[in-house]
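Provenance and format

Records in this collection were gathered into a single text stream. Each protein contributes a sequence line and a token line. The two records reproduced below are adjacent in the stream.
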Amino acid sequence: MRVIVDTSIWSPFLRRKHPISAQNLQVLEQLIREKRIQMLGIIKQELLSGIKEQAQFEKLNDILAGYPDLLADSEDHIVAAQCYNTCRKKGVQGSTVDFLICAQAVNHQLAILTSDKDFQSYAKFLPIRLYSEEVE
């Protein structure tokens, strides 16, 4: 199964400002070796946003170009809105970006590797698979 690696994992790994946990580092390195990472356009946008130096932007963009892109289509946005509505009815708040990630995971049968605890809340009400729960 291919895996969406969320910004919460990529950012500390690529930018090294905040250390990534040893467990997440090991999992990420394994996914990279096995070529199982599915890059989402929205995650690439998040990772590239806020970089002040053009050279650093280009270097990171080159690194990310090595992972296949999955761009959101109309159906992904519709399912994202449904995910938002489902969670909202259950009292769970989330961002538009998070629900787009959930929708793409559902629509394309992808797991999600994240350190963002919000996804655990979403998983109670949405048919998403968190990679930490996968038995591989």
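Adjacent record:
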Amino acid sequence: MKILQNTTTWIAAVLMVLMALTRYKHFGSSLALPDASYAVFFLGGLFLGRMRGGKAILALLLLEAVLVDYYAINFQGVSGWCVTSAYGFLLFAYAVLWSVGRWYAPRHDLTGRGLFGLFATSVVAGSMAFIIANVSFYLLAGYFGSMSVAEYASRVTQYFGSYVAVTVVYVGCAVIAQMAYAALTGKSDRDTKAV
């Protein structure tokens, strides 16, 4: 199928559209999907991180995240409460997601073992990103001077499961899409493996 020839372009485009459509609604609603940013950066690293131009795609996704936030805050009435001096540390959180996905890429395949490894790796990557984002927010946002670390941790822990679960669900959807692509194109698991 000619339309599927440049897989890299299609993957990058799908990831960009997914982030644009979901980023402004962190937890989702009956009308909006939950934020896919964690999964977008993880999947970008997994499928595009080792390809020529992978770093440029990472930079483009980072720029898109900032632009979506700018648009949501300035034109959609989304609160800018989270945009503080800690905001720059999202770069590190997203870089961890990308890097872990990139690290796992040569190990990824559509076998049971490969899928279990992908699931475990996406949980670890999502957890690391969540910790980086929240520790930096606690330390640098300027909102928590009188709040103890334990109290802050107990408050943000309630969101941890949903951030990681949403990441895993989007990664699962990507695997289903990868399987469908393999079936449509007649390519084997080896041919659709992340590089």
